[in-house]
Amino acid sequence: MIIIEGPAGNGIGRSIAAEMGVEFLECKHRLFPDGESEIELDGSVSGKDVLLVQTMYPNQDKRFVELLLLANAAKKQGAKSIGAVIPYLAYAREDKKFAGKENAVSINIILETLNSAGITHLVTIAPHKAEPLSSFKGDVKIADAITPLAQEVKNHVSDAFVLAPDKGALDIARQFAGILGCDYTNIDKRRDRTTGDVEMIKAPQADMRDKEVIIVDDMISAGSTTTMAAAFAKSNGAKRIIAAAVHLIMADDAYNKIRNAGVEELFGTNTIPYHNCHSVDISNAIAQIIRDRWSGPRRIIKTN
Ligand code: R5P
Question: Which pTM was predicted?
Answer without folding.
Answer: 0.93
